[in-house]
Amino acid sequence: MTQVTEASYPTKALQKFLTCLNGASNPLILDLGPVVGSNVTFFGEQLGCRIRVEDVAADIDRHVKEGRLEQLPAFFASRFTQDAGSVDGILCWDILDYLDRPAAQELATALCRLLKADGCLLGLFSTAETSDQVYTKYVVVDESTLRYRTYPALRPRQRSLLNGDIIKLFKDLRVSDSFLMKSKLREMLFRKPAPRA
Asked: Cys bridge to 194: 117, 148, 169, 174, which one at CB 3.0-4.6 A?
């Protein structure tokens, strides 16, 4: 049985994410993790934003249960119904670690489409090879600390993505910051370039 754990770690990218969204008026954030009430409160107070939570881990578990993992790429291609360019910021967390390459590419493409010009996406990527069957719920303690709370997953992490692989997934965005953390995660902040005039 997989052990459920909780620990706090520093974050460098979260502060940059907040700075990126600070100038936006009534920004919309898309959070791909499960609902965390204190996160909704934190971002609401910091940014005066709206948050839409779309629990992608639940989508993955449902496909595992129903034996339809091969259908995940097609599912992600049409998963988000919001207008293109309608989201200011995306909290991707580490969800791409649980997907094979085709599904990860479709999800990344969908997220790039949703993001506004000059919007930002925060992604976390494991640098450790592990097959633990747990997801991580990221709870914002403050702008420089995240609490990692694990909970059972039906699918283990897939192989770790290399830096070049991550950049290819988000080819429509540019890397604004990248931090290798002692928590064995790479934190990456992407920005969507404004279209050329």
From this structure: 117
